[in-house]
Specification:
By secondary structure, this protein is an alpha/beta fold. Helix 5 links the parallel strand 5 and strand 6. Helix 6 packs across helix 8. The radius of gyration is 19 Å and the shape is globular.
Length: 325
């Protein structure tokens, strides 16, 4: 019998790619989001435009579903999450979605839930040294995320595990580390670092200048979307519940990320550092646990994924600048 899958947040970047992968694997897929995907027409069997904060919407979409992939959240890059202006919305919206999805999904007989947590749950005090961040799974406590987004993700992790203990629900929890690739938000303030840097490089003529928040020495690792989806698939097929990091261990500074994008574009640009929201000084995935429990880890070089992402964003920039005759 064909497995019936629900993807919450299907109108977003990772959710849209996930729907495509699940359909290619032969599943029946119901997709739900506040909006249709901006950059792709999804081949879902059903696409429902609905607000997952609304219990009535959730009650309808979980009906007849075997597995739920819960990726829906109020989120964005540093320019959205670290200003403090959206904290109440981030906490309320995301927590409500998870509370509704779990309770009503369990009532409807959903067999298994995947929850996409985030590296933002890790304590700020372990990520002050940009060259030596500590992001192993057990280091999450004592808890001290640097944003309300991280606090909500940590609460929701505990929510899923509590349902597993008390209600016999099957759950899988992964902590995503900066997933990137084509067909994602690349402008408007919610884009993440790879997309923002690619956009700035694509928009700037050779010899020009791009702006980078902070000194550019803050470090991150970035995971290409295809490897993220492969890791999710392996986790869902395993008997390991998590939480587990899904990320790359190829750590770079933001300056290095910008230089890589310039190299891909064939441009020589200067960088001007300005004040702006930054998040933690350093963050890198620790992949010891995923190697141990799943016998696998991401291996694709950052540049390979960034080449594909830059080409897509450059095309969007060019299209946006084209004025019809």
């Amino acid at each position: 019998m064909q497995k019936r899958i629900l993807v919450n947040g299907a109108g977003g970047f990772i959710g849209g790619h996930l729907v495509k992968k699940l359909k290619a694997e032969g599943y029946w897929v119901r997709a739900v989001d506040l909006k249709h995907h901006e950059y792709a027409t999804l081949a879902a069997d059903e696409f429902i435009v609905g607000d997952l904060r609304d219990a009535g919407v959730v009650r309808g979409v979980v009906e007849g579903i075997d597995e739920v992939y819960q990726l829906a959240a109020d989120m964005g890059g540093a320019g959205y999450l670290f200003t403090g202006e959206h904290d109440a919305a981030v906490l309320h919206n995301s927590a409500t979605i998870n509370l509704n999805t779990l309770e009503l999904g369990v009532q409807a007989g959903v067999k298994r839930f995947f929850y996409s947590s985030s590296a933002c749950i890790y304590p700020e005090y372990n990520q002050r040294d940009p060259q030596n961040p500590k992001c192993s799974e057990e280091s999450a406590y004592p808890a001290a995320p640097d944003s309300e987004y991280g606090w909500e993700k940590l609460f929701s992790e505990r929510l899923y595990f509590a349902y597993a203990r008390n209600r016999g629900t099957q759950v899988r929890v992964a902590r995503f580390h900066n997933v990137f690739g084509p067909r994602g938000t690349w402008s408007g303030g919610r884009e993440k670092a790879p997309a923002a840097v690619c956009r700035k490089v694509a928009e700037t003529p050779d010899g020009g200048e791009i702006l980078i928040w902070g000194d550019g020495l803050q470090t991150r690792s970035f995971l290409y979307i295809d490897e993220c989806l492969e890791a999710v698939h392996r986790l869902m097929e395993s008997d390991f519940v998590g939480p587990v990091n899904i990320g790359s261990e190829e750590m770079v500074t933001i300056n290095q990320l910008a230089e890589m994008a310039m190299s891909i574009a064939g441009k020589k640009l200067s960088i001007r550092h300005i004040e702006g929201p930054l998040g933690v000084r350093g963050r890198n995935s620790d992949n010891r646990l995923i190697r141990e429990r799943l016998g696998w880890e991401p291996t694709r070089p950052l540049r390979e994924g960034l080449e594909k992402t830059y080409a897509w964003i450059a095309a969007q920039v060019e299209a946006a600048c084209t004025v019809p005759a």
